[in-house]
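Is fe (ii) ion placement plausible here? Inputs below.
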Amino acid sequence: MITADIRPDLAPYYKDELDPKNLAPLWEVLPGIAKHLPKSACEPYIWHYADVRDTLMKSADLITAEEAERRVLILENPGMRGRFRVTTALFAGLQLIMPGEVAPAHRHTQAALRFIVEGGGAYTAVDGERTYMEEGDFVITPSWTWHDHGNESDQPMVWMDGLDIPIVETLDATFAEKFPEKSQPPGRPSGDSLHRYGSGMLPVDYYEKGTVSKVFNYPYTRTREALEQMRKAEEWDPCHGLKLRYVNPESGESAMPTIGTNMQLLPKGFETSSYRSSDATIFSVVEGTGTSQVGDETFTWSKRDTFVVPSWVPVKHSAAEDAVLFSFSDRPVQRMVGLWREDRGNA
Ligand code: GTQ
Ligand code: FE2
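Reply from A.M.:
I modeled the complex. Tokens:
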């Protein structure tokens, strides 16, 4: 741009010389790289569960979980259609498993979280241990662990998948393989990891600080109880209400190395101060109703809705009833490399 303005006669000739050599002039693109503020294609958006549910259920008439390997509708950010991502760095989708179905075992370098949206009693097995999932549970499938899912209940089971697919793709570190059988043979008893590593204690000779939590199901009953007990202290954060982050009990770091996860309570009538941060965030409504102002948009939400707040776009929440919001983002990656920023109350 600069060259074209200053030397309009020379620029095209010079360009012709660069092209066959696979060279490009930085000065033409620098303003787009060193942007003053994060301005990505990622847009604020909300998926109302009421609009999505029927369409998701129809997918069960078209393909089985086994045929699909994973029967998932990708939540594609409208600013990045065709790029299978909900934010620039993360993937999200709604996965459906009908009663009796199995999603066959495989593993991959991308890490996944499951946030249970509807149903209960289906399991996911991670490296041989099954965990049975209920609404509001936060479940982890760490990178390169074998996993299969099965629904032994009599109702459809829907959860939101959150994966670091775009991050792993950027680093070109994608590997995947299928397990020789549909399901993994049983290993540890169901629920073992939660009790072994998630009771505020650790096995006596265990001093590892793994990058991912050994607890792979954080049940909603526990999370909800923590929030309910803590609300008695009446200590509300102006930007977040009462907000907890899920951690790896060995290290105190985020439960997953690439994805940060949180649960927050906003009591009826609470209005948060404006907040923005450099980690684009996906929210899933667990309980209650309310509205969120995200940049210029106002989203009215209720149970099971999903909405996106892009990087550095100011958000304000307002709870019409007691509300509980699950959220996740790439914050741990940004913090690890010293990039993360936030702005409390000024935007
Ligand atoms: O459940 O294993 O949404 O491998 C995308 C990729 C879910 C899964 C997704 C996956 C899975
Ligand atoms: Fe998977």
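Short version: The chain has one domain: 45-344.
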